[in-house]
Design brief:
With 131 residues, this protein is mainly α. It has a domain at 94-131. Helices cover 57% and strands 0% of the residues. It is built from six helices and no strands. It has helices at 2-7, 24-34, 37-40, 51-62, 66-75, 99-130. The chain is flat.
Length: 131
């Protein structure tokens, strides 16, 4: 009878189907071998590189010319993501083509509505009762 009750309990994860046991220390050692010393440090570099040095470093790492690296820096910079009319990065334009920005804008609007509702729900309730 006890076995029948246990079989009714759903199993959400099959053993060794999604996860396998591994040694965490070995995993950390592999990461340390793969990453460079600068990637593991939380401290900022003492020497600030010039734009040309950064372009040369990116070009060397990616195997491209320095002109292409400079072009990538210009195209992929944070300044190119800003809207032309607004300097405020928190303002999302209405005519955006990016889906994620549209979703963020709708969530911001919903947040404002919820905030208004929580502050004015008592007045709204009184208005409904009087109406």
């Amino acid at each position: 009878m006890a076995e029948a009750e246990i079989s009714n309990i759903p199993e959400y994860e099959t053993v060794e189907l999604n996860t396998k046991v591994f040694h965490v220390g070995s995993f950390a050692n592999k990461w340390r071998e793969t990453l460079e010393e600068g990637d593991l440090s939380l401290e900022e570099d003492e020497k600030l590189a010039t734009v040309e040095e950064e372009d040369a470093k990116v070009a060397k790492e990616m195997g491209i010319s320095e002109e292409t690296a400079a072009e990538l820096r210009l195209v992929c910079s944070v300044d190119t993501l800003r809207c032309a009319g607004d300097d405020n990065p928190n303002v999302i334009p209405d005519d955006t083509d990016l889906v994620t920005l549209g979703e963020k804008k709708s969530k911001q609007e919903l947040k404002v509505i919820k905030k208004w509702w929580s502050k004015n729900s008592h007045n709204l309730y009184l208005w409904v009762l009087q109406g």
